[in-house]
Structures are given as C-alpha cells and as structure tokens.
UniProtKB/TrEMBL annotation:
CDD domains documented for this protein: TMPK (cd01672)
Alphabetically ordered keywords of this record: ATP-binding, Kinase, Nucleotide biosynthesis, Nucleotide-binding, Transferase
Pfam families: Thymidylate_kin
The gene coding this protein: tmk
Residues of the Thymidylate kinase-like domain: 8-194
EC number: 2.7.4.9
Molecular function as annotated in GO: ATP binding; dTMP kinase activity
This protein's record includes keyword ATP-binding: yes
Protein name per Swiss-Prot or TrEMBL: Thymidylate kinase
Record organism: Azohydromonas caseinilytica
Protein residues bound to ATP: G10, I11, D12, G13, A14, G15, K16, S17
C-alpha cells in the first residue's frame, strides 16, 4: 500500500480545501496516520510568514524568499519527521504554487526558483500532486460567493490565467506525479475522480 507526500494545487477557488479533509478521512479509515497541513504555514514561524505574505505589499523576490523560508521550517519541523515515521502527509499547496504564482503570475525568474527549490528541499518532492484545474472565470465566481479576497485573490483574470499556465508547465515537466483533476465538475464528480485516481495508484 502506498504512503507518502500528497500535495493539493490549483488557483484560488478551485475547491482544494473542500476535498483535502475528505481525503484525510478516507486514508484514516484505511488505517493510515495522516498529517494534514498547508503552505505557506504549518509551523508557528511559517504561519507568521503566511500573514505577511497574504497582507503586506512586497516584490516578487521577497515573496519567493518568504515562501521558501516558510517551506524550509515546515519541511524540517513537520513534513520530514512525519514521512520518516510512515505517516501520509497531505499538504494544501507546496512548491508548484511558487512556480505558478511567483513564476507564472508575477513573472519571476524560474531558474532562481529552481535554485531555491534545490537548497530548501534537498531533493524532496511530493509523491503525488492533485492539480485542481478549472477556468479562472469559474474560480473567481466561486471565490466571490465564498469570502473576502486577500492579496493574491484580489488579482485579475490575466494573473490567474498565468498562474494556471504555470501549473500546466509543472505538470508537463513531471507527468509521473501530477494528476489533473477536472475541478469544474460538481463536487461529487470531483471527489469520485480523486478516489478513483488514488485507488488506481494503490493508495
Ligand atoms: N465542485 C464545486 N462546484 C461548485 N462549488 C464548489 C466546488 N468545490 C468547491 N466549491 C465552492 O467554491 C468555493 C471555493 O472552494 P475552496 O475549497 O475554498 O477552494 P480553494 O481551497 O481551492 O481555494 C467554496 O465556497 C466551495 O464551497
Ligand atoms: C504556497 C504558496 C502559496 N501562494 C499563495 C496562493 C494563495 O493565494 C495564497 C494562500 O493559499 P491558500 O491557503 O490556498 O489560501 P486560502 O486559505 O485563501 O484558500 O498563497 C503563493 O503565492 N506561493 C506559494 O508558494
């Protein structure tokens, strides 16, 4: 039976948060220890950096350094120890979000992001990435109905189109770990796809 590191990705409003808890339950009833966490965040330090990232104005390099600083702390304090004891880690966003938002959305240098990724992760990559993909217009409609926008969520459709392209490029570069979830479907169909994809892969 598979275990390891699963990440959830997609533009804001794609429906990730609605399914991550359901997947945690699905794994727990199958006897797995599950760590449910998120980025930026997951440790006291990283949650403080998250507050700054979501609300304080800053340039794309500062943003990139802060998300990777938060990630470093999160990996060392929580993700790596959980994987070492055999738990399954479910993380709401990880480095693909940095390539999509800072790289795609903000247009920041992908080569620099690749170097930071190498330093911070020392080769660690998710075993599986569920990419919730849908048109930015649909996601914007869902967000508008659900919550007040933070610094990223107030960006326009062009920004989210670039973020989506950033995810698509990461998926093309690592097809073995990416699963594209059709997030435009009704909730039940999204969940059915997630369950099917995991079962097919022996999770
Ligand atoms: N498949 C779906 N169809 C319609 N609305 C959805 C679907 N999945 C989630 N939603 C709604 O869209 C909003 C954003 O979902 P959320 O899970 O917070 O997205 P994310 O975590 O990806 O930003 C919420 O109000 C949620 O109830
Ligand atoms: C992990 C990560 C997130 N982000 C952004 C994307 C999201 O808009 C925001 C927070 O993500 P998220 O937790 O999905 O927001 P919410 O709680 O509102 O659903 O941070 C980056 O820009 N780069 C990153 O590396």
């Amino acid at each position: 039976m598979n275990h390891g590191f699963i990440t959830f990705e997609g533009i804001d409003g794609a429906g990730k948060s609605s399914h991550i808890e359901a997947l945690a339950q699905w794994l727990r009833v199958r006897g797995r220890e599950v760590l449910l966490t998120r980025e930026p965040g997951g440790t006291a330090l990283a949650e403080r950096l998250r507050e700054l990232l979501l609300h304080e104005p800053m340039d794309a390099l500062t943003e990139s350094l802060l998300v990777f600083a938060a990630r470093r702390d999160h990996l060392r304090q929580r993700i790596e120890p959980a994987l070492a004891r055999g738990a399954t880690v479910l993380c709401d966003r990880f480095t693909d979000a940095t390539f999509a938002y800072q790289g795609g959305g903000r247009g920041f240098d992908l080569a620099v992001l690749g170097q930071l990724e190498g330093w911070v992760q020392q080769g660690r990559q998710p075993d599986l990435t569920l990419w919730f993909d849908l048109p930015p217009t649909v996601a914007a409609r869902r967000r508008a109905a659900a919550r007040a926008a933070d610094r990223f969520e107030s960006e326009d459709e062009i920004f989210f189109t670039r973020v989506r392209e950033g995810y698509a490029a990461r998926a093309t570069a690592a097809p073995e770990r990416f699963i594209r979830i059709d997030a435009e479907q009704p909730r039940e169909a999204v969940w059915a796809q997630i369950e099917r994809e995991l079962q097919e892969r022996g999770w």
